[in-house]
Amino acid sequence: MEKLMIEGGHRLKGTVQVSGAKNSAVALIPAAILADSTVTIEQLPNISDVRILSELLKEIGGDVSFENNTLTVDPSEMIDMPLPNGRVKKLRASYYLMGAMLGRFKQAVIGLPGGCNLGPRPIDQHIKGFEALGAKVTNEQGAIYLRAKELRGARIYLDVVSVGATINIMLAAVKAKGRTIIENAAKEPEIIDVATLLSSMGAKIKGAGTDVIRIEGVDTLHGCRHSIIPDRIEAGTYMVIAAAMGDRVLIDNVIPQHVESLTAKLREMGITIDTYDEQIAVSRQIGSFKNADIKTLVYPGFPTDLQQPLTSLLTQAKGTSIVTDTIYGSRFKHIDELRRMGAEVKVEGRSSIVSGPNRLQGAKVKATDLRAGASLVAAGLMANGITEIMGLEHIDRGYSQLVEKLQGIGAKIWREDLGVEEREDAKVGD
Ligand SMILES: CC(=O)N[C@H]1[C@@H](OP(=O)(O)OP(=O)(O)OC[C@H]2O[C@@H](n3ccc(=O)[nH]c3=O)[C@H](O)[C@@H]2O)O[C@H](CO)[C@@H](O)[C@@H]1O
Ligand SMILES: C=C(OP(=O)(O)O)C(=O)O
């Protein structure tokens, strides 16, 4: 077990290469189950969520290899093996095995997912969708059992705009008989990416990226080759870090439109941002920048996944900022840790209220979830002295080569083994 060490206060300069999108990857990989021949996915991020899902596909009989960020899956020998426990609990996106296995085998048993603890994360809309397609769904001892004689297309109106439910219903519906219409669908870029892969496999999908998705079921899906979109949340995290500490940091392999809500907010604060076709340059003129209020919304609104990293930047802004999370009202576990570093932040209901500017001091802190980890990394880079971040396993779920990428732009950051006492503490915290 390791911890992350950061010596803060160093200015950053150079180019950061963004990896493939975690939230696409974790849906594209299960989607391969639906094909009858080899699916190749290129430019995947080398993160633990991807490695765990690859192992899960092996567990159900897939012939899987993951080398040089390219995953090859031959799904032809897969079976409908129950997965009630084990690896499925280590990540959120194992719920996509439900839609994909239901679509292929007409049945599946999948343990309720893990992932970031952001307060309640129900999957009722996924289940509503599966049931509308004709599946019987039960929860038996923490695992979801799905069974269908056949899947028939249906009109499904989502009560809540949900990324996971939209993708899961697409996965279950592409091989159902007849037409499925998903209304009030989520519009995140990752949904378009999954629809692109499925279409390359022979699926008939229209409207991905709008709030009405139409699917005509087909009997078979074939293998294909697909290249994933860049990770807009990883790109956004580096933009925030560059805004705090960057002389000029070029973020390469990004679709600027995907991070527009962040770009607009940073410009409002007085940060200089230049956008190019696939790159964004972020520079901060020496001196203070302005406070800003943030409200997270579904895409194309400000992403909840960037709320936590941005809060660290707001500790350096002049004035009071209010960060309201309308998606996950209790996504504020990073605040206690930021306070340990000297930040003046309080939480009221669904909002955190940040007073700045406030010089942060290095401290021993713990990442409680993935983006809490990102916010602590950002804070550590801004702080005076050394910051030690525990809970690295959360960060490793979503940031490929974090240490190397930050070292590449001049950050003093490294991994260290935990001491005996720290190992014991980490076990107690599990
Ligand atoms: C693997 C993945 O892609 N994770 C992302 C995905 O999570 P995930 O797909 O789990 O998030 P959703 O879009 O489903 O959740 C949005 C909101 O809907 C609620 N909800 C969701 C489903 C449901 O059946 N019932 C329900 O009430 C949730 O509690 C939440 O308040 O989108 C989130 C919101 O952009 C991001 O933070 C996560 O990084
Ligand atoms: C919440 C996140 O991930 P997950 O849904 O996989 O837990 C995230 O990526 O910020």
UniProtKB/TrEMBL annotation:
<keyword id="KW-0963">Cytoplasm</keyword>
<feature type="binding site">
    <location>
        <begin position="22"/>
        <end position="23"/>
    </location>
    <ligand>
        <name>phosphoenolpyruvate</name>
    </ligand>
</feature>
<feature type="binding site">
    <location>
        <position position="92"/>
    </location>
    <ligand>
        <name>UDP-N-acetyl-alpha-D-glucosamine</name>
    </ligand>
</feature>
<protein>
    <recommendedName>
        <fullName>UDP-N-acetylglucosamine 1-carboxyvinyltransferase</fullName>
        <ecNumber>2.5.1.7</ecNumber>
    </recommendedName>
</protein>
<comment type="pathway">
    <text>Cell wall biogenesis; peptidoglycan biosynthesis.</text>
</comment>
<dbReference type="InterPro" id="IPR036968">
    <property type="entry name" value="Enolpyruvate_Tfrase_sf"/>
</dbReference>
<comment type="function">
    <text>Cell wall formation. Adds enolpyruvyl to UDP-N-acetylglucosamine.</text>
</comment>
<keyword id="KW-0131">Cell cycle</keyword>
<dbReference type="InterPro" id="IPR013792">
    <property type="entry name" value="RNA3'P_cycl/enolpyr_Trfase_a/b"/>
</dbReference>
<feature type="domain" description="Enolpyruvate transferase">
    <location>
        <begin position="7"/>
        <end position="406"/>
    </location>
</feature>
<feature type="binding site">
    <location>
        <begin position="121"/>
        <end position="125"/>
    </location>
    <ligand>
        <name>UDP-N-acetyl-alpha-D-glucosamine</name>
    </ligand>
</feature>
<feature type="active site" description="Proton donor">
    <location>
        <position position="116"/>
    </location>
</feature>
<dbReference type="GO" id="GO:0009252">
    <property type="term" value="P:peptidoglycan biosynthetic process"/>
</dbReference>
<keyword id="KW-0808">Transferase</keyword>
<dbReference type="GO" id="GO:0019277">
    <property type="term" value="P:UDP-N-acetylgalactosamine biosynthetic process"/>
</dbReference>
<feature type="binding site">
    <location>
        <position position="305"/>
    </location>
    <ligand>
        <name>UDP-N-acetyl-alpha-D-glucosamine</name>
    </ligand>
</feature>
<dbReference type="GO" id="GO:0051301">
    <property type="term" value="P:cell division"/>
</dbReference>
<keyword id="KW-0961">Cell wall biogenesis/degradation</keyword>
<keyword id="KW-0573">Peptidoglycan synthesis</keyword>
<keyword id="KW-0132">Cell division</keyword>
<dbReference type="InterPro" id="IPR005750">
    <property type="entry name" value="UDP_GlcNAc_COvinyl_MurA"/>
</dbReference>
<dbReference type="InterPro" id="IPR050068">
    <property type="entry name" value="MurA_subfamily"/>
</dbReference>
<dbReference type="InterPro" id="IPR001986">
    <property type="entry name" value="Enolpyruvate_Tfrase_dom"/>
</dbReference>
<keyword id="KW-0670">Pyruvate</keyword>
<feature type="modified residue" description="2-(S-cysteinyl)pyruvic acid O-phosphothioketal">
    <location>
        <position position="116"/>
    </location>
</feature>
<dbReference type="GO" id="GO:0005737">
    <property type="term" value="C:cytoplasm"/>
</dbReference>
<dbReference type="Pfam" id="PF00275">
    <property type="entry name" value="EPSP_synthase"/>
</dbReference>
<dbReference type="GO" id="GO:0008760">
    <property type="term" value="F:UDP-N-acetylglucosamine 1-carboxyvinyltransferase activity"/>
</dbReference>
<dbReference type="GO" id="GO:0008360">
    <property type="term" value="P:regulation of cell shape"/>
</dbReference>
<dbReference type="GO" id="GO:0071555">
    <property type="term" value="P:cell wall organization"/>
</dbReference>
<comment type="similarity">
    <text>Belongs to the EPSP synthase family. MurA subfamily.</text>
</comment>
<keyword id="KW-0133">Cell shape</keyword>
<feature type="binding site">
    <location>
        <position position="327"/>
    </location>
    <ligand>
        <name>UDP-N-acetyl-alpha-D-glucosamine</name>
    </ligand>
</feature>
